Sequence to fold (218 residues):
Amino acid sequence: MRHIFTQHKILSYIIAISGSACILFSYLVYQSNKTLIAINQSVFEYLIPSRLADEHLIWSYITHLGGPVGIGILTIAATVYFCYRHSYRLGILYSSSILATFGIVMYLKSLFAFERPVYEQAIETSFSYPSGHTAISAVFLILSSYIYTHQMQVKHKKVYIGIAVCISVSIAASRLFLGEHWLSDIVGGYLLAILCSSISILLFESHIAQKALQAKES
Fold:
């Protein structure tokens, strides 16, 4: 285990920082920090005029993209694609990471039992923290960016990363504009996504390095 972390120091630092931030921020949410609640309420009330405008339908389409159905279809498609190309490890990376993140999100929602904003047009009825749409879509996009920039020979890598960031931010913003989440839910979702995707990438790269070492020795 020590060998894994020493070979990937940057990822190890990201995991340590995001993990610590996730725990600390979740603790503030659990304790119903007054400052955090005030910020949540201020952002929610500030966006009320936007929810009454014509943009509501547009945000609805965007939010469906990052939902369980949308990300589920994309994950299955990506897994099938990589398995078809005999890149089974990449397919497993996608599917296992998304499933693990989804399971963690569901567990944390039931653990914190944080109520969603009271808004008459809101559709979701489950608990609020953390945002599942934000976390799951961010993990999918982070892994996609990693694969395209590190595991595949593609040009214009910065363009792919830029597109992924824009899509992720749009999905997270849609949850706020639709009144489905508090700002703290979005932040918690992103922290969890960074943590989960970093652990997945670390384990994946360690597996590749171990296989390469075994092949070299043989």
Summary: The radius of gyration is 19 Å.
